[in-house]
Specification:
This protein has 181 residues and is an alpha/beta fold. Helix content is 36%, strand content 19%.
């Protein structure tokens, strides 16, 4: 299991999708699908109990559906899954990190992330600004980059949807240093 974390608009989904395009046995869990209806970032226990623990126990396939009152969304991990990527803001936070085999932090400045959100049409300017404030507070508290095994510079380019690589800059993260003798 690999976690891909970073602020909204940093390129987490693009990176995950590019990596998944390289192998048909890679499944992506988009935390947006899990967090539907969840207050702020209060979905960690749900992710652990309903998805990550069954995966660790090799209980495939894993099926999860959100409540109909919050809008039905689903996460399915088939028996054929060999790699599972958990991508989203908070994917590598402390209580999840121990469940992951590797953690990736995708860095983008708040300005770049906000511009990308607005360009995608995901948020009006005032909504995007409020989200960035809440997200920044959450990330500053949890600091998922501090235990990342790999740092990716999300402002320069990432794997394309078809799996071909663009201009990607990576570096070993602090998590790798902690694993060395």
């Amino acid at each position: 299991m690999v976690g891909i974390d970073g602020r909204s608009g940093s390129g987490k989904t693009t990176l995950a999708s590019g990596l998944a395009a390289l192998d048909g046995h890679v499944v992506i869990i988009h935390l947006d699908d899990l967090a539907s209806g969840q207050a702020d970032f209060d979905w960690a226990d749900l992710l652990i109990d309903e998805i990550l623990l069954p995966l660790r126990l090799n209980s495939l396939p894993v099926e999860f559906r959100t409540s109909p009152r919050t809008g039905v969304r689903g996460i399915t991990i088939p028996e054929s899954a060999e790699v599972v990527i958990v991508e989203g803001v908070g994917a590598c936070r402390g209580e999840l990190r121990q469940m992951l085999d590797a953690a990736v932090w995708v860095h983008a400045s708040p300005e770049t992330a906000r511009r990308r959100l607005q360009t995608k049409g995901n948020a009006e300017a005032h909504v995007a600004l409020q989200w960035v404030v809440e997200e920044t507070s959450f990330l500053d508290h949890h600091q998922p980059w501090a235990s990342a095994d790999l740092l990716v510079h999300g402002e320069l380019g990432q794997p394309a949807w078809d799996g071909r690589y663009g201009n990607v800059v990576t570096a070993p993260g602090p998590g790798i240093q902690a694993m060395r003798p």
